[in-house]
Design goal:
By secondary structure, the protein is mostly helical. Helix content is 45%, strand content 0%. The protein contains 2 helices and no strands.
Length: 94
């Protein structure tokens, strides 16, 4: 395979107009990729340091909160639909 040569532009003076480094993006992590662990941390992968162990009781409580929030939103939409149907029957279509 041929190695591509970098394009050289006549009007490029090397200044940065707007930095495109955004926190969390792969190219702004300082050159480290998922395949290259840092020196001294060869046994730990990046996923291990952020992983949280939950007990079964904590998992049930978390899922209960998720379902409660979902049912609250669904109930609000159902109530709004029911009130709209009542409005249509008793006010709008009379």
């Amino acid at each position: 395979m041929k190695k591509r040569s970098k394009k050289v532009y006549d009007d490029d003076d090397g200044r940065v107009i707007s930095s495109m480094n955004v926190d969390g993006m792969p190219w702004s992590r300082g050159g480290m990729t998922d395949r290259e662990p840092q020196e001294g941390n060869r046994n730990m992968s990046p996923k291990d340091e952020n992983e949280i162990e939950l007990t079964p009781k904590e998992k049930r409580a978390m899922m209960g909160g998720v379902f409660a929030a979902a049912f609250l939103v669904a109930g609000a939409f159902l109530l709004a639909g029911f009130l709209f149907i009542l409005f249509c029957i008793h006010v709008w279509f009379r």
